[in-house]
Amino acid sequence: MYQILMVKKAFYSLLIASLTLSSAFAQEPEPTPTTPEPEIDPLEKFNWETSGQGKIGSDATIDIPEGYRFLNGLETAKVMGLFGNLPSTYEGMIGPDDLSWFVIFQYEDSGYVKDDEKDDLDADELLETLREQEEASNEERRERGLDTLTTSGWAVEPNYNESTNNLEWGVILESSDGGRNVNFLTKLLGRHGIMHTTLVCDTEALQGTLPAYQELLTGYEYNTGKTYAEFEDGDKVSEYGLKALVAGGAIFAAAKLGLFAKIALFFKKGFKLIAIGVIAIGVWIKRIITGKRADA
Fold first, then answer.
1. DSSP secondary structure letter of residue 293
2. Any idea what DSSP says for residue 44?
3. Distance between alpha carbon 13 and the CA centroid of its chain, in Å?
């Protein structure tokens, strides 16, 4: 009898141990493989406008066609920071949905720029002047740890559209790191200053992009009271003209406007980095006008 009780006791001990192990296994299920969350394009975190009119600072507007997106100035500054640019002030940016190219707006209250030099934009002379200023601009770039740039020629020679009061040109720049890029610029002249408009795109895509870019700019309009045609005697007049806008630098004719270091373009198929060759932001022109070292 005693032996039977011992067997039963052993049996119950084994049963309890079995149940305890089963409970332990039940409380610790095998981990389920997790699917990593998809990466979110950082550009999609900004407050893009996709219809209507975009307000370019307090000076102008631009139509936002279907298939395009627009950012205000504050949001544009954040994007430029994301792209690795030095801090600066922006009025806005616009481009197609895939941002395969885009346009940056920056305003300079330089005063009214007279267009009396519109028939004297000698491309060869201006190119020679740009090259003469390269050392001054490259000095600034070296101080900032940036690659130096050489002007190799015109992508589009300087030309002035009298009906729209737009000055535009494209310059081919070669970088000391072996890069070759195009800066295409449009100066939209207004009553009180200039809207500096920079097209950012691949060098190879420039000619194919220009028609869409120029069509896009037909939707640009200065606000009432600020158009070029509304100039009145007594308004502030700029200290420089059309030739100086070109000769003063490949990007901006005012040193107070920012210096692009590098621009990163996000494409549907990945990330692509291009240097858009930005030089001396008008370092030369400020030295000529004021005799002082310009602040970038």
1. P
2. G
3. 75
User: In this structure, are strands 60-63 and 166-175 parallel, antiparallel, or unpaired?
Assistant: unpaired
Q: Can you tell me which residue has the tokens 């209507």?
A: 52
Strands 53-56 and 194-200: unpaired
CA dihedral defined by 19, 22, 26, 29, rounded to 10 degrees? 170
Tell me if the pTM is above 0.85. no
Q: Which residues partner with 186 through β-bridges? A: 168, 197
56 in Cβ contact with 71 (< 8 Å): no
d(CA 228, CA 163): 11
For the chain, the structural domain boundaries read: 42-290
- State residue 255 phi and psi, 5-degree precision: -70, -20
pLDDT tens by residue, 151-175: 889 989 999 999 899 999 988 878 8
CATH class entry, domain 42-290:
alpha beta
* 8 Å CB contact between 129 and 157: no
Residue with tokens 């370019």: 56
Give the integer Cα–Cα distance in Å for 224 and 77: 26
Contact (Cβ atoms closer than 8 angstroms) between residue 8 and residue 16? no
Which two tokens mark 42? 């950082």
Please, where are the H alpha helices in the chain? 2-27, 73-82, 123-132, 134-143, 206-217, 242-247, 283-290
Most confident of 15-29, 131-145, 150-164, 172-186: 150-164
Q: How far apart are the first and last CA of the chain?
A: 102
